[in-house]
Write a structure and sequence with these properties.
Elements (H helix, E strand, L loop, with lengths): L1 H7 L2 E4 L2 E4 L4 E4 L9 H5 L2 H16 L7 E4 L1 E2 L5 E4 L11 H11 L3 E5 L12 H14 L2 E5 L7 H12 L5 H6 L3 H16 L3 E5 L5 E5 L12 H11 L4 E5 L7 E2 L4 E2 L1
Parallel strand pairs: 5-9, 6-7, 7-8, 10-11, 11-13
Antiparallel strand pairs: 1-2, 3-4, 9-10, 12-13
Helix pairs in contact: 1-3, 4-5, 5-8, 6-8
Length: 261
């Protein structure tokens, strides 16, 4: 019954490999998954169990493995917004205005394209962290976080968690009577950066695939010319994919080359 037990953990079989569906979506063409959308398959224990049983039988019978693709999200309908470089924790951050705009356009998915919190040049306060995650919950969308420059640093994250955890009061009373607000902020920030990835892959409603990454590791600077960056990105990606980066603090879209930043 391992096929069922694994399904209850949101783990899908793929030959001798396992796919953890708690943080991704699976597209599969096996007989158990035919006619079902990736979100239907990946978010239902019953569907995962049926998939696992078929995969188990195919493995025992030495039949060919099913073709499986995984994505960080599959956008079957709705509107996706992409927001980069919020730099929360600095005086220049416009995260509150950003959320006001997101509420107006009524999105279903939100990609946060790195540098969401600034652990290097800023110091996210308790009210900023708590307010940010409460507003995320208010708009009620699927969030796909991507790591950026400053917020990919484990040391920076630990420093931020330490600042949020401790107040000016003595440590012992805090352990005996922990602040619910501080606990909420620490937990939310920790979960956010636990699931954040260096690169996110999303299948769009038209069948194309969008690749999202912050872009700080691609060698571009803020003074580089937009057209040159678009040309280099176009050469590095598959022609059918859409490539989206942040980092440069410039807005640029080339529909022909399917590049945006």
């Amino acid at each position: 019954m391992s096929w069922l037990l694994k399904a209850r953990e949101f783990v899908a079989y793929h030959g001798i490999e396992n796919i953890d569906l708690k943080n991704c979506v699976m597209e599969c063409g096996c007989e158990a998954c035919l006619g079902k959308s990736p979100n239907q398959i990946s978010r239902s224990i019953e569907n995962i169990a049926e998939h696992n049983l078929v995969q188990f039988k195919n493995f025992v019978g030495r039949r060919e493995k099913s073709v499986i693709n995984t994505f960080d999200a599959v956008l079957e309908e709705g509107t996706m917004a992409v927001v980069g470089d919020l730099h929360i924790g600095t005086p220049q951050s416009l995260w509150e205005l950003c959320f006001s705009r997101l509420k107006q356009i009524k999105i279903s998915h939100l990609v946060l394209l790195g540098y969401t919190f600034d652990f290097e040049n800023g110091k996210p306060s308790l009210w900023e962290v708590t307010g940010f995650f409460r507003k995320l919950r208010e708009i009620g969308v699927e969030v796909i976080p991507v790591l950026g420059c400053s917020d990919s640093s484990r040391e920076g994250l630990l420093d931020a968690l330490r600042e949020l955890s401790l107040s000016e009061e003595p440590l012992k009373p805090q352990l005996l009577k922990p602040s619910p607000v501080r606990a909420e902020a620490v937990r939310s920030l920790l979960v956010f950066y636990t699931v954040a990835k260096e690169k996110a892959k999303v299948k769009l409603a038209d069948g194309s695939v969008a690749i999202f990454r912050h872009g700080h590791d691609l060698g571009f600077g803020k003074k580089d010319h937009p057209e040159e960056i678009a040309g280099i990105l176009h050469e590095r990606k598959r022609p059918e994919d859409i490539y989206v980066i942040g980092h440069c603090h410039k807005s640029f879209l080339d529909p022909e080359k399917r590049v945006q930043y």
